[in-house]
TrEMBL record:
This is Nucleoid-associated protein FUA26_06435. The keyword Cell cycle does not apply. Its main location: cytoplasm. The lineage of its organism: Bacteria, Pseudomonadati, Bacteroidota, Flavobacteriia, Flavobacteriales. Keywords: Coiled coil, Cytoplasm, DNA-binding. It comes from Seonamhaeicola algicola.
Length: 107
């Protein structure tokens, strides 16, 4: 029984390491999002860090319109990044978890 517990602890540490490696890798996964008319483009990492913005000059003439564009496009980019992030981290966690009864929430 003690050996099983040590083996389980080792697997959990290995899983934790895989999750951390996945988090680091997600910093390099870039997601591009654009407004429907391509006047605003956003680049964000899968860890939801904004890496770039491209704003069409016509949007600079109307502050309120620019703000609306930013809110809508950034929210779409964050939503996509969150889906990628959650899927990748869940896969990394599931891969290394031991088969513990009642802990099938990652399946």
């Amino acid at each position: 029984m003690f050996g099983d517990m040590m083996n389980m602890m080792g697997k959990l540490k290995e899983t934790q390491k895989k999750v951390e490696e996945t988090r680091k890798r997600l910093n390099t996964v870039l997601i591009d999002e654009a407004s429907s008319d391509n006047k605003l483009k956003v680049t964000i990492t899968a860890n939801r860090e904004i890496k770039g913005l491209e704003i069409d000059d016509t949007l600079l003439e109307d502050k309120e319109q620019l703000e609306d564009y930013l809110v809508l496009t950034l929210n779409k980019a964050i939503e996509k990044a969150t889906k990628v992030n959650e899927a990748e981290l869940a896969a990394a966690a599931k891969e290394g978890l031991p088969n513990i009864p009642g802990m099938d929430m990652f399946k």
